[in-house]
Structures are given as C-alpha cells and as structure tokens.
Amino acid sequence: MALTRQVVSTLQDDGTDVMGPGTLAWHYPEQNLVSGSLLTVEANHFAVLKSRGAVLGVYDTGQYPIQTPDKPLIGGFVTGFFGGSSPWQYEVLYVNRAKLLIRSTGIASSAEMAEMSYQVEYYIHVDTKDDALKLTTHMPFAGHAIDADEVARYAGPVVEQAINQVIQVTPMEKINEHIHDIVELVKEHLASFLGVYGITLNDAKVLILPKDERMRELISLRAFGLSELDAVRYYVALKMAEKGLVSAPNMAVGQPFSIGGHTMGTFPVPGAG
After folding, report:
1. 16, 194, 269, 273: which is deepest, by most CB within 10 A?
2. pTM (predicted TM-score)
C-alpha cells in the first residue's frame, strides 16, 4: 500500500494560521511525509526541511515538492513495495519572519539596596533563511513550538545583567536620569545574545519603578520639587484625605487643627524651632 502524499502547511482546516503573533517557530507535527508531498510556505514564514536530523533545505515563500534523496540501491524495493513513494521520514520546522513582541520582567536593587521592579519590552524578527537555520539549530523545541515566553526566558538573565550593571551603583532617585544609558545597554546585550540564535532585535523600551507602592508615591511627590519632609507630609495628608479625615489639609500645610477654638493637634512645620 502506497504512503499518502500530503500538503504540508501552517494553515488549519478552518483557514487560520497555527503560527500566531506569539509563536516564533513551529514544528510540523507529522513526520511520515513522503516524496511528492507539497511543502507550502506562507508569505511571513520560512521553512526548514530535515531528514533524519540532516538539513535538506531552507525555503522562502512558495510551494515546493518534497523529493527523496537518490538511493539507487533500494530504488527497486521502493518502487515495488511503496508504489514509488519513499518511506524516508522528514521534519518541517516553520519560522515566523514577522515582528514579535517580547516582554521581560524582574527585580533589581538600587545603590541603597531598595528593590526596583523593571519591565522590558522589545521587538524581534528573523530576517533571512540563514537566520532561520540558526534558530532551528541553536534553540531547542520544548514540544512543537517556540513561543514569545520561551524567548523571554532565554534572554531574561541577559536583560537582568544589563539593568543591574547600572542600577546597582545608582541611587533610587537618580535611576530615571540614567534610563537612556540603561536602554542602550539592554539593547546592546540583547542584540549580541539573540544574534547567536539568528534573531534580530528591532527596538526596546525599559520601565523601572520602585517595587514598593509607597516609595513610588513619595518619589512622585518629590518630582514636584518638594523636599523629603514635605513629600512625607503631603503623602500622609493624602492618606488622611482618603480616610475622610477633615484635618488632612492641616497636615499638608503643617498647621494645627482646631474645633471651636480648641486645638486638636499640631503638625510640625519644617524648619520651625
């Protein structure tokens, strides 16, 4: 009985593409492909064809018939037993050439050992057939796909190292002043690391904030030009206002709170004796 020729594609029965915006590479699940099967490569993909571990070719957009390597010693056996279709097993690895968004998050420490949370977002793509071959050669498949989250896990230590290189020697309040240096350092390290896998880095942005919400609010107040003590006083006043305490404005200006001429409490004024 002859093995069945088939069309190899990323398109599913309902017409949707199995390789969505979060998939960098996909391993075609069937391996019993035979000579004469039709390899289909969509406009935004590359395809790597392998047989028994050896790379037979890397393909751009188009349709290509799969041809079995010439094996004259078994040609008669193949013709008689398989009806002309070769039993050689093939693997097809599809690579997404569209831009993908990758996100990486983590915690770093400032010069004062204050915890800072960071989020890095960057775009990547696979540019050429040679790059597609690098990707399928150097980045293993954990299942049938390599997704954006897996790329983020691979690149995570590189991002962390680049960010810590600046943050660990920078006071917390000065970190945003160095954000351009941090971004450039992250891009440099990422581009070098991802290039080994045939991945091109397009752009990156970095957001760094204190992990503690209270510290974020205090730094926001300091950004208005308030002193450290004023920032703390206004922060307390805001929290008092959230609780509905009528003395919140007095806390903000550092004045005592009175009811019917009776002083209920005093709030220190910075610089007062």
Report:
1. 194
2. 0.73
